[in-house]
Amino acid sequence: MIAMIETRGLRSRQAALAVGVPSSSWYDMLESDHELQSDCERAAARFEAALVGSILKDAFSLKSWRPKLALLQAVAPWWVAPTKFEIDAAVQTVDQEARLANAMTADQIDAELDKFAAEAVRRLSDERLEALLEDRRRRREEAGTVSTDRTLAAM
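The structure assignment produced for this chain is given below.
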């Protein structure tokens, strides 16, 4: 069930139903096992972090990131798309020959971005994950979003 939450972004009850655990049994398991509650919250936070990383990767590689943003907002409604950007940029001239000599191919860039995203998720420390979980809870409360799942924060 944890893998379903982490890889597909399902809510804990949805993940339980997907693997054949009835709702009533799921809630009994969840009430009696605080570690399971914590594991579900952590899996949801890891999915959210991976999705945000994927959106950033797609934005930098000029791929379509908007469907992923819509998924993120559906899974975590406290994420709101910015409506205004302010950019402060300075224009510099670049030696084009030097730039082309060191240019990477599209495949090399994709490979580097994949490595970067995988490394970012691997390096997510328990401390940072706890901070991410706390931020998720705070954003939920600020947005007035009520989850149908029972979590440690609600108990």
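Interim note for the steering committee: Confidence is low (pLDDT under 50) at residues 148-155. Helices lie at 2-8, 12-18, 23-32, 34-60, 66-75, 96-101, 106-122, 126-143.
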